[in-house]
Amino acid sequence: MATLRKNNVEKYLRSFAESVIKRGKKILNAKGKSGKLSDSLKYRLEATDKGYNLVFKGTDYAAFVDKGVSGTKTTRTYQNVFGKRERSPFSYKPYPTGLGANIGALEKWISRKGIKGRDKKTGKFIKTKSLAYLFSKSIQRKGLASTSFFSKAVSENLVDFDINLLENFKTDIITHFETLDL
Q1: SS in 3 state form for the chain?
Q2: pLDDT for position 97
Q3: How far apart are CA 76 and CA 67, in angstroms?
Q4: How confident is the model at residue 4 (pLDDT cuts 50, 70, 90)?
Q5: 39-48, 128-137, 167-176 — most confident range
Q6: Which has the closest alpha carbon to 74: 139, 134, 141, 145?
Q7: 1-63+147-177 carries CATH number 3.30.300
Q8: pLDDT, position 1
């Protein structure tokens, strides 16, 4: 594996990655989804014998939030990095036991948001666990909408990527040529 040298191409790739993450966080924040996911967004730049690898990282559920999840009754789409709508590669399946999404996580979310459910017939409040179960079944049927936070961020930053990368590459070649000792 080659060692990383501070050059214009590397600096540009780091700047590109930081810009993608910054824009992704801004999109998440605008959709009210900042928090653990936003804080987890990172990148890693590796030099290889053939060039560079730029790897973006996030929580294990980042792809679900970006691309959405189709439900058993609804198909979800997301915007890919080229700006086209595509079908989500993720989908809920009917649960054989009748249980839906993570009830415990939904209970915590309901409590944190202060949501109270009522029985339509009696008007009495229902238990948080029952409300979480109802939410879970709804999520299973309808799925989760995509935010395209990462796809949009990459798409927006790719507009001038090739031109800027070539300019930085040209500068590196000229700089290396000028400093070459013969």
Answers
A1: CCCCCCCHHHHHHHHHHHHHHHHHHHHHHHCCCCCHHHHHCEEEEEEECCEEEEEEECCCCHHHHHHCEECCCCCCEEECCCCCEEECCCECCCCCCCCCCCHHHHHHHHHHHCCCCECCCCCCECCHHHHHHHHHHHHHHHEECCCCHHHHHHHHHCCCHHHHHHHHHHHHHHHHHHHCCC
A2: 56
A3: 8
A4: very low
A5: 39-48
A6: 141
A7: yes
A8: 43
Tallying the residues shown for the chain, one arrives at: 182
Radius of gyration from C-alpha coordinates of the chain: 23
What separation, in Å, do the N-terminal and C-terminal C-alpha atoms of the chain show? 26
Q: What is the pLDDT of residues 93-125, one digit of tens each?
A: 776 655 556 788 889 989 988 999 998 899 899
Spans of all domains in the chain: 1-63+147-177, 69-76+90-145
Q: What is the mean pLDDT of residues 153-172?
A: 86
Bridge partners of residue 45, in order along the sequence: 54
